[in-house]
Write a structure and sequence with these properties.
This protein is an alpha+beta fold. The protein has helices at 2-39, 86-90, and strands at 74-75, 93-96, 99-102, 106-110, 115-117, 122-130, 134-140, 145-150, 152-153, 162-163, 168-174, 183-191, 194-196. The strands form two sheets. Strands 1, 4, 5, 6, 7, 8, 9, 10, 11, 12 and 13 form an eleven-stranded antiparallel beta sheet that branches. Strands 2-3 form a two-stranded antiparallel ribbon. It starts with a helix and ends in a 14-residue tail after the last strand.
């Protein structure tokens, strides 16, 4: 009996130590998980989880955005669609020095200047001056997709600069094609060299044009 008693005491202490070690490991693991979860969720102002919790670092699906962020911008002259009704086609014609031209893009207008942003990430491949459209900046997004921003000023970068989506590239400007005193961004998008109506693209992803 005395022999078993001597063995029982060390075994008891070893068991206590093992339980303590396991408890400490569980606590440390719980703290790490809590920190990781805290870094990846959004909170409301009173530190309570929102109903729909999404990771803060959620990657973008690279959906095409509009070339402006101001709420005061409206569509002026629309894209010329040969299938559209006559009234819409009439609103899509550009008149310059008694010459009528089909509008290959959309004119976004506002009573005040607004920031112009890149609709997708890409590289500036051209900046030029044009008698009709003023300063023109061209961005290549991939081998098939290009966006063109005309009638802008205060251009922020040079040819070869790689832009992030939503990065400001300039501001709207007064246009010789606009009879009112509004500022204008003339915006065009080309897929494999063919002009597309920008207003149809803002729910699409760049992967749709690869």
């Amino acid at each position: 009996m005395r022999k078993y008693y001597k063995l029982l005491i060390p075994t008891f202490y070893v068991g206590i130590v093992a339980v303590m070690v396991v408890s400490i490991l569980l606590v440390v693991t719980g703290i790490k998980n809590y920190i990781n979860e805290s870094n990846n969720v959004k909170y409301t102002l009173d530190s309570v989880f929102e109903d729909k919790v999404e990771p803060v670092n959620k990657t973008s699906n690279n959906t095409i955005i509009k070339p402006y962020v101001s709420d005061n911008v409206k569509v002026g002259r629309t894209f010329y669609d040969y299938k559209a009704e006559a009234k819409k086609q009439e609103n899509s014609l550009i008149v310059y020095e008694n010459t009528y031209m089909q509008n290959n893009g959309v004119d976004y207008v506002s009573d005040e200047e607004f920031d112009v942003v890149s609709v997708l990430e890409g590289e500036i491949v051209g900046i030029e001056d044009n008698d009709v459209y003023g300063k023109i900046l061209t961005i290549k997004h991939n081998d098939n997709l290009t966006s063109v921003y005309s009638n802008i000023k205060n251009i922020t970068a040079k040819v070869g600069y790689k832009l992030s989506q939503g990065e400001i590239i300039g501001t709207s400007n007064k246009s010789s094609l606009e009879s009112s005193d509004k500022t204008v961004l003339h915006f065009e998008v080309y897929y494999k060299g063919n002009a597309l109506d920008p207003e149809n693209l803002y729910t699409m992803s760049v992967s749709d044009f690869e």
